[in-house]
Amino acid sequence: MTMKIGIDRGMDMDMDTARLTALVCATLTTGLMAGLFFAFDVSVMPALKRSDDRTLISVMQRVNTSIINGWFMLAFLGALLFTTLALALHLPAGEHAVLPPLTGALVAYVLALAVTGRVNIPLNNALEAAGDAERIAEPSAVRQAFETKWVPANRWRTALCTAALTCQAWALLAAST
Question: Does pTM surpass 0.70?
Answer without folding.
Answer: yes
